[in-house]
Amino acid sequence: MKSQYKLLSLFTLLFFSLTSFAQKNDKKEEIKVWGNCGMCKKTIETAAKKAGADSATWSTESHVLTVAYKSKKTSNEKIQKAVAAAGYDTQDFTAPTAAYDNLHSCCQYDRKADTATSTDNAQLCSGKDCSTCCKDGKCTSGKDCCKDSAVCKEKGCCKS
Fold first, then answer.
1. Prediction pTM value
2. Do the domain assignments include residue 97?
3. How would you classify the pairing of strands 134-135 and 138-139?
4. Helix, strand, coil % over all residues of the chain, rounded to 5
5. CA 59, CA 63: separation in Å to the nearest integer?
6. Do 145 and 99 belong to one domain?
7. Span 88-98, average pLDDT
8. What residue numbers bound the domain in which 147 lies?
9. Are residues 99 and 143 in the same domain?
10. Do both 138 and 122 map to the same domain?
11. What mean pLDDT value characterizes the chain?
């Protein structure tokens, strides 16, 4: 009887210690994402997963992306930036025009009002700190990352 009690206690302790260390999705959120079709669905969901979402489901009818993720691994903002970088406007970020223009013709949706600011575009720029290069959507001369304004524009940092 004593050995059964000890064995049961050991299994109970082991079970609770394993489950307490297991990371669980602690965030589940809905994000408005513009798009049209099944091809959009695949691209949007893939971008969200690459940004760290454990699950991502986008509805072609409601245009809502439902994501579940671990907050220690990623964030709503990172997921939205990745989706915008793939060419799709989200509730908080506007996709760079170059990324939108690269979408298949059936995926080019009626864009939300152009509320993109140079700050939004700078946040989407990867590999360079374009916030110091852009002012009012234009490259600021004399900055290292804007020596070639075409590169700045291609990165989505500047509108022109």
1. 0.60
2. yes
3. antiparallel
4. 45, 15, 40
5. 5
6. no
7. 96
8. 117-160
9. no
10. yes
11. 76
**CA 99 to centroid of chain Cα atoms:** 14
Helical pair 76-85 and 38-50, crossing angle rounded to 10 deg: 130
Task: Tell me the residue ranges of DSSP E strands in the chain.
Answer: 27-32, 55-58, 64-69, 134-135, 138-139
Q: CA-based angle 94:88:96, to the nearest 5?
A: 45
In a shared domain, residues 109 and 122: no
What whole-number distance in Å separates Cα of residue 16 and Cα of residue 97? 51
CB of 41 within 8 A of CB of 58?
A: yes
Calculate the alpha carbon distances from 20 to 16, 68, 102 in Å.
6, 19, 45
d(CA 143, CA 160): 15
155 within 8 A of 128, measured Cβ to Cβ: yes
Buried b / exposed e over 15-50, threshold 16 CB at 10 Å, is eeeeeeeeeeeebeeebebbbbeeebbebbbebbbe
Give the pLDDT band of residue 19 (cuts 50, 70, 90): low
* Cβ atoms within 10 Å of 75's Cβ, excluding its own: 15
**pLDDT over 60 (residue 5):** yes
